[in-house]
Every structure is written in structure tokens, then in C-alpha cells.
């Protein structure tokens, strides 16, 4: 009998109060280089909302505009510094508590985010999260190329990543937590979905469903 239960959490806006990628880039590049990168990438940044600029490519382009061909070890160090000093202030206590609730019930918690894995994989172990499905930066000879390796982990790609991760061992129950359009497909896949702003976070019932709506 399949009793596997998975809880998939978006990161930005769901676990955090604001965009962690923006905060990371400010921390890594500094305010002057960050502002110059915004100016260089303004046409693409402005094109995300109307849909003619691709989110993943714009994100990768912005990182390159701010930091250039940064070496991996330097960005890894910046990511660790951000996780240690900048990220904690962005975390929502009630969502950290929800993660721990799932873990206490024996559920597998997975992080599914469009943000770069370079800092998410440093943060996740602090919460006992062993799986991070996120956007990956492309490296060549240890240097950032200005591109993503694979697709941006957003929208339909979140579902594709989850299915590839669990393979033939699909969970009997899937919870999904999100806050935006980029989480819609993941929410539709789930047995129990919660989107920030649509309802209060319900109590988690031990039998596998949200206490109020299972």
C-alpha cells in the first residue's frame, strides 16, 4: 500500500515575505552594481509581465549583468553569506512551523522554486529538507555563463520536476503551497493545495488532509 505523502513548497512569497533572488543579488553585487544591472536589463525586466520576455532568461541575464563571469566558488561563498545573514529576516515563522508539522507527521518536504538553487540548497538542510527542485545556473570551467542549465523552474516546469523526481513512486497524497501564478499547475496537481491570499493557512490533520477541508 502506498502511504507516501509529499509536501511541495514554493519559496518566494510562500516561505519568504519577498523576492529572495532580488535580496540575494543586492547582497552579492552591492547596490551600485545592482542598480546598473537593472538599467542594462530594463527592457527584459519590463517585458516579463506582458509575457514577451522569458522569466528564466531574464533572471540569468540579470545575474550576469550584475556579477559578470563570476567563478562558482565566489558565488557559492556569496550564497552562504546570504543564507547566514540576509535570508533569515525574510522567512515567515508560520511557514517554517508548517514545514515542521509535515515533517513531524512523517511527510517528505520538497522545495520547488524558480529561484537559483545555489542558495536554496544551502538553506534547505537547516530545515531538514533534503530535496530542492529549482532553477540551475550554467557553469563552464567553473565560470558562470550567463545562462540557466535547463528550464526555469516555474509554472508547468514545477510539475515536470516533481514527476521526474518521484518517478514511478508517485505519492498517494500531495500537498502544495504557493503564492502566485507560477504555482498554479503545482496546485492543480495536488490533493491539497494552499495559495497565499486565497485562504488562511488551515490546520493540518494527522490523517493526511487539511483539517478544515479534507
TrEMBL record:
CDD domains, per the entry: HAD_PGPPase
InterPro entries listed in its UniProt record: HAD-like_SerB (IPR050582), HAD-like_sf (IPR036412), HAD_hydro_SerB1 (IPR006385), HAD_sf (IPR023214)
GO term, biological process aspect, one: L-serine biosynthetic process
GO molecular function: L-phosphoserine phosphatase activity; magnesium ion binding
Pfam families on file: HAD
Coiled-coil segments on the chain, per record: none
Gene Ontology CC: cytoplasm
NCBIfam families tied to this protein: HAD-SF-IB (TIGR01488), HAD-SF-IB-hyp1 (TIGR01490)
PANTHER family: HAD-IB FAMILY HYDROLASE, PHOSPHOSERINE PHOSPHATASE
Identification of the protein by name: Phosphoserine phosphatase
UniProt source species: Paraburkholderia caffeinitolerans
Lineage summary: Bacteria, Pseudomonadati, Pseudomonadota, Betaproteobacteria, Burkholderiales
Amino acid at each position: 500500500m502506498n502511504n507516501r505523502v509529499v509536501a511541495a513548497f514554493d519559496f518566494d512569497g510562500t516561505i519568504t515575505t519577498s523576492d529572495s533572488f532580488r535580496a540575494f543579488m543586492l547582497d552579492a553585487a552591492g547596490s551600485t552594481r545592482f542598480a546598473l544591472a537593472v538599467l542594462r536589463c530594463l527592457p527584459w525586466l519590463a517585458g516579463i509581465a506582458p509575457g514577451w520576455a522569458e522569466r528564466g532568461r531574464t533572471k540569468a541575464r540579470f545575474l550576469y549583468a550584475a556579477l559578470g563571469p563570476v567563478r562558482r566558488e565566489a558565488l557559492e561563498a556569496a550564497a552562504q553569506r546570504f543564507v547566514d545573514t540576509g535570508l533569515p529576516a525574510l522567512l515567515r515563522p508560520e511557514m517554517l512551523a508548517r514545514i515542521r508539522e509535515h515533517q513531524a507527521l512523517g511527510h517528505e518536504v520538497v522545495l520547488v522554486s524558480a529561484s537559483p538553487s545555489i542558495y536554496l540548497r544551502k538553506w534547505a538542510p537547516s530545515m531538514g529538507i533534503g530535496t530542492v527542485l529549482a532553477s540551475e545556473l550554467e557553469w563552464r570551467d567553473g565560470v558562470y555563463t550567463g545562462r540557466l542549465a535547463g528550464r526555469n523552474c516555474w509554472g508547468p516546469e514545477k510539475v515536470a520536476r516533481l514527476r521526474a523526481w518521484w518517478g514511478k513512486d508517485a505519492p498517494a497524497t500531495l500537498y502544495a503551497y504557493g503564492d502566485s501564478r507560477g504555482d498554479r499547475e503545482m496546485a492543480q496537481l495536488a490533493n491539497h493545495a494552499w495559495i497565499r491570499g486565497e485562504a488562511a493557512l488551515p490546520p493540518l490533520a494527522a490523517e493526511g488532509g487539511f483539517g478544515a477541508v479534507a
